[in-house]
Amino acid sequence: MANAATHRRALATPGKSGPARQHLTLRLLAALPGGYALSALGGICLSLWLPLSRADCAMAGILVGLLVWPVTFMACFGVADGRKAFGVTLLATLLTGGLALLEGWRP
Question: Is the pTM of this model over 0.90?
Fold first, then answer.
């Protein structure tokens, strides 16, 4: 029985260009450098905002950063549109960077 889920377009095939390749490129940009930036800034932001000792905050920030990157990577390839993945990752990165700057982080 055919439904909408069985007729999805392929993300990328050999020799295929155009929108599918552009969406794959946006997904890769959102997942690799964007996910790294989000995990790094998220860990920094969390370590600055937690009311724990300095060592505990640093450890919590590192551990959360290690969890954020794979989740961001999977989410970038799980959404239907590469532009949405890129936009949401960029927005989340700017938000966590802004929160870290607000708390007194100096890059």
Answer: no
